[in-house]
Write a structure and sequence with these properties.
The chain is mostly helical and 88 residues long. The protein contains 3 helices and 4 strands; from the N terminus they run αββββαα.
Length: 88
């Protein structure tokens, strides 16, 4: 097995676990809920849909912010000593 495939396999495994957990929760908790944010109240929807939308928003947000982080010009710190020098 190639060393590059191990992280991809781990990520796929983690996403499969998250998807199965959301599906189990959505089947067990089919009662509708509504989200309250300050004065705004959402429509009532099953908790599984809320969890799936939250997970999707997080994955899409992370995928969008990662290239923007690279474009900002900040370089990743590769050495632990550099990190410690930056902190202290």
């Amino acid at each position: 097995m190639n060393m590059k495939t191990i992280p991809l396999l781990a990520i796929s495994f983690l996403l499969a676990i998250l998807a199965s957990a959301i599906s189990i929760l959505s089947v067990q908790n089919a009662t509708p809920v509504s989200l309250n944010f300050f004065f705004f109240k959402s429509i009532q929807m099953p908790i599984g849909v809320v969890l799936a939308m939250s997970l999707s928003a997080g994955v899409i947000g992370g995928a969008i912010l990662q290239p923007l982080w690279m474009l900002s010009g900040s370089k990743p710190i590769a050495d632990r000593k550099e990190l410690e020098e930056d902190i202290y």
